[in-house]
Amino acid sequence: MTDTQAASGANTPQVNAQVTASAIPPEEMDRLTDGIVAALKSVYDPEIPADIYELGLIYRVDIADDRNVAIDMTLTAPGCPVAGEMPGWVENAVSAVPGVAGCSVTMVFDPPWDQSRMSDEARIALDMW
């Protein structure tokens, strides 16, 4: 199984692929990872003009050998009006990536999201310098 995690801190979300005896060839894993990141960047919080990846809302992405993807994500606030809809948006976007067999999203609130998780790109878009 391969574990790809969005790292916190340093203002830029990063995806680190750690291959642990994966049945997925490295080239395909790179392609899947790039496609998943692109899919995540296509999902926007409707109240904030930045995508969920650059906002730092993605905490974990796990690509299993059967190409099913499990994602842990959070929201900028637990009472977000689209809390019930956003996991479905993420599932649909990631499931559409060629080679992904399916996707499940788990909403987590630990650790709580804060502005330090945002990338420089998100900070520029939100004029938060």
Question: What's the gist of this structure?
Answer:
The chain is an alpha+beta fold and 129 residues long.
Explain what this protein looks like in three dimensions.
Pfam families: FeS_assembly_P. This is MIP18 family-like domain-containing protein. By secondary structure, this protein is of the alpha+beta class. A hairpin with an 8-residue loop joins strand 1 (2-6) and strand 2 (15-19). The protein has a single domain (2-125), classed as 2-Layer Sandwich (GMP Synthetase, Chain A, domain 3). It is built from 3 helices and 5 strands. The protein has helices spanning 26-40, 86-95, 120-125, and strands at 2-6, 15-19, 58-63, 68-73, 102-107. Strands 2-1-3-4-5 form a 5-stranded mixed beta sheet, covered by helices on one side.
Provide keyphrases for this structure:
24% helix, 22% strand, GMP Synthetase, Chain A, domain 3, disordered N terminus, 129 residues, five-stranded mixed sheet, alpha+beta, single chain
